[in-house]
Amino acid sequence: MTTAATPEKIFNIGFGFWSSKVLLSAVELGVFTELAKGPLDLASLAHRIGLHDRAARDFLDALVALKLLDRGDGLYSNSAETDLFLDRAKPSYIGGLLEMANTRLYSAWGALTEALKTGKPQNESKDSGDLFAALYADPNRLRSFLAAMSGVSAGAAQAIAAKFPWKERKSFVDVGAAQGMVTVTLARSYPHLAGTGFDLPQVQPVFEEFAGKSGVLDRVVFRGGNFFADPLPTADVIIMGHILHDWDLTQKRMLLAKAYDALPKGGALIVYEAIIDDERRQNAFGLLMSLNMLIETSGGFDFTGADCQAWMREAGFAETRVEPLVGPDSMVIGVK
Questions:
Q1: Which candidate in 52, 192, 242, 245 is catalytic?
Q2: 245 an active-site residue?
Q3: For residue range 68-109, what is the model confidence (pLDDT) as tens digits?
Q4: Could you tell me the superkingdom of the organism this chain comes from (predicted)?
Q5: Looking at residue 236, what DSSP letter applies?
Q6: Cα(143)–Cα(300) distance, rounded to whole angstroms?
Q7: Segment 30-54, tens digit of pLDDT
Q8: CATH number for region 8-85
Q9: Class for domain 95-335, per CATH?
């Protein structure tokens, strides 16, 4: 007998924004940071984070039902995951990405239908078409964006440190280093590596602050530049994380060619993204990320491992392979 079809999955997806906004608002309000200090009852927690009496119980119990909070003996506490990843006081905090989702992406995605019809971005670059000019012009918005990039890169950085044969290499350049999550992670994991973070000059103070707090500023350097206008710094390994998907195909090919030119013979390029599976059936996050590039950029899109390997071979790379990292992320490696 076949199982009767139900609309449950349709409703769960269609109303998924309810759960999403509850989490995003909880991060914004500092719920998890407050509870990391210790369990609290309803009245105390509501008072500390500024909830109205009418909203408090349903909001906090919704977080319990979503398995984001625990509740016992009338006291609310963090789950293991939210305590580790959503407490702003911990170095493992990834909430910067969710803060960006809340302040920028949530409203922009409300215009997805317009983006699907027009092919144009729907964020703060809607009129100018230049997302990064808009972001980098505002120091506070820039800091928020760079912190978000650390959140999206943290897991992949650990996996790249573990899975790539770094003991055989002496130097690396992280292109589009942002706050420096990958640079710092590799430097802390392999003291013999000479690391360079390459990004626009406005990023330097944020990068150096992050590297300093992580204790590796004496072993990594920042180099300011524009990867379209300037040559890439040379190193044994060049890393491009969540970079290629921002750009159109011509620009992607240009960046891969620049990486090839900057590498010595035997050098390696690591491209990591939410790489879409070759059949385009499994990695829903990668496909949704590509739609996010539609929302965010004038020509960006995500791609499959086969796509990236083909572009690498066009650039001259002799060997290519794809390796999974963590969650939806994979890395495509090209060796010169």
A1: 245
A2: yes
A3: 999 999 999 999 999 999 999 998 888 888 998 998 899 999
A4: Bacteria
A5: S
A6: 22
A7: 999 999 999 999 999 999 999 999 9
A8: 1.10.10.10
A9: alpha beta
